[in-house]
Amino acid sequence: MVAEHEKLASDVDSRQAFATSVHAVLAEFFETQQATVGSVGPVFADAVEVLKSFVLNGGKRVRPSFTWAGWLGAGGSPDSDRATAVLTVAAAQEFIQASALIHDDVMDESSTRRGAPSVHVQFANRHRRGKWEGDSRKYGEAIAILLGDLGLCWADDMLRSAYLRMDEHKRVAPVWSAMRTEVIGGQVLDIATVAERDESEAAALRIDRYKTAAYTVERPLHLGAELAGAGPDLIRAYRQFGVDIGIAFQLRDDLLGVFGDPAVTGKPIGDDLREGKRTVLLALALQRANPKESALLRRCIGTAMSDNDLARVYEVLRTTGVVEDLERRIERLTDRAIVALETSEATPTAQRLLRGMALSATRREA
Amino acid sequence: MVAEHEKLASDVDSRQAFATSVHAVLAEFFETQQATVGSVGPVFADAVEVLKSFVLNGGKRVRPSFTWAGWLGAGGSPDSDRATAVLTVAAAQEFIQASALIHDDVMDESSTRRGAPSVHVQFANRHRRGKWEGDSRKYGEAIAILLGDLGLCWADDMLRSAYLRMDEHKRVAPVWSAMRTEVIGGQVLDIATVAERDESEAAALRIDRYKTAAYTVERPLHLGAELAGAGPDLIRAYRQFGVDIGIAFQLRDDLLGVFGDPAVTGKPIGDDLREGKRTVLLALALQRANPKESALLRRCIGTAMSDNDLARVYEVLRTTGVVEDLERRIERLTDRAIVALETSEATPTAQRLLRGMALSATRREA
């Protein structure tokens, strides 16, 4: 199954086959935890089932894909005896992602995730239905915090279960560590930037750099490269590609969060504006708006503004020209990333694969 | 410095020297994180400082001590070239503990920890003082959740930084994994047991087993044994000792939480009763109380009861004889633990050390 990826490279079947492989190693990891979980007791086992469906059913496996592509591109072979270890390390990132989403939803008080009630809401609902003791919301948040903690622990347990050789381990460990510290740091910045009303473009870019680019593209690719024992030139090229595509991905996300078609994105219109997300888009708009316009933005952004105000905010975003500017930036970043990739030593198949991933990350509509 | 522990064994100087060594390796670990933390930015670095003081200034280093003692007892030598690796693994548990306390305080809405404002309160206070955007409480909780997450990640990063040999790694990994899953599982049980109003002794004992005994004594000792390559007999003896002393420790804690001298424990009188902790003490009292008494307990426990009601609750606890029963259980568990220890292959010095630790854990007054 694993062996097909290199051949089929960027087509849909291959992506499906890879997702199936990731699902399989994740499911297998859950099996290995059964005994310990069961010994703690059925109440815990029930809670773990929620984490299990979250991890097994969720997401596009973006980070595992970049690690796998990075490994292939640095000469890793799906037929080698290292393929299973690489797949395991790649898939382990899904536990970090699950934990990040579960904790994010608690922090943001988001009630839905992937079209279903978020984890803390699921447990709050159980509490409410059972007419249990205490506050349902607090109960849901507590269990969600603990399941997110478990996800973080299991990411590392799964990494360890790959039993990397000492040389692989020494190369991988610093990258794995940096990735986790960076994404948590980026999230701290995000929360602090909103709280401290930092409207600067620099602050927004820094969040994009650590919360998104490093965590979603740069480090996953870097992990793949280290697993393959890549040299410094390829690693540099991958990281450049990763930072650029990661930021371009986030800028696209910002545009979709404001101008995306609700029917395609699944988010209500103006969601990011009402939430008050500190995006590069907003920072640029505030830089360019005239005093009256920026007063309007400051009064409305981050509030449950009326549809009338929302329409006026859209008008300001359009007249300041930030949309065209962001589109140009996305294009420049993507171009630079692809040049870094195409002038690198990455194998041709992996170049094709990564180019396809770059374009679908930056040109998507949802 | 490390070499002194074996010689000085159980006296106060040695404990102080060990605490100093643990502090040193923890401080050194923080140094290694500076570069990554700094690159994310000063706002993140500021937040990490709070985690740093929490970890460096806190606690009695109980878990590292048991790991160290377990390793010594299984033939580990402070003069060997493995001593630093063992100290690193031992100390890494302090990050798990920091994370557990920080997240516990969020879940329980506890405003103080170790006589200072808890981490989420510290950040809520900053938010309030800065007159920042949004809700101060939510801000404090979000940063505390993230710092707890960082603590969990850094526990594993620090473990990795020990660069265990493959044989050590293979023995240690399952124990480290089980410990973290067990403590999170125990915490889930604790929260669910209160919510579902499970008053059984079995539920309370199960929480003590996983949330306290496994995490505080059994697994830390087990880690030390595996690091030394101990055989199955010694591991079995350590685990028996660990479970028994861990539960006895918790039963002592339950007694102190209800009958402890507030001047010595630092907790207000009747704190555990008003909080509604599901302890073995309470489970036994409910089993033995007559219908009128158990109605009183059910009406009052877990509420901000009046001092008058509190006095009546105390009266019930005294007349049911649960205090004497718990004292007997603590004694029986401690005796059994010490027999397991003394009939084991553990070195005489380590036996003396562990006996001392067992007695101070189960006979303490605070």
List the helices and strands and how they pair.
2 copies of one chain form a homodimer.
Chain A: H1 4-8, H2 12-40, H3 42-57, H4 62-73, H5 83-108, E1 112-113, E2 116-117, H6 119-129, H7 136-161, H8 166-195, H9 201-228, H10 232-259, H11 262-265, H12 271-275, H13 280-288, H14 291-300, H15 307-319, H16 322-342, H17 348-362
Assembly state of the chains shown: homodimer
Terminal Cα separation of chain A, in Å?
29 Å
- Report the CATH architecture of the largest domain in chain A: Orthogonal Bundle
Instruction: Tell me the count of domains of chain A.
Output: 2
Taken from the alpha-carbon principal axes, the silhouette of chain A is globular
Protein name (chains A, B): Polyprenyl synthetase family protein
Cofactor (chains A, B): Mg(2+)
Keywords (chains A, B): Coiled coil, Magnesium, Metal-binding, Transferase
GO molecular function, one term (chains A, B): metal ion binding
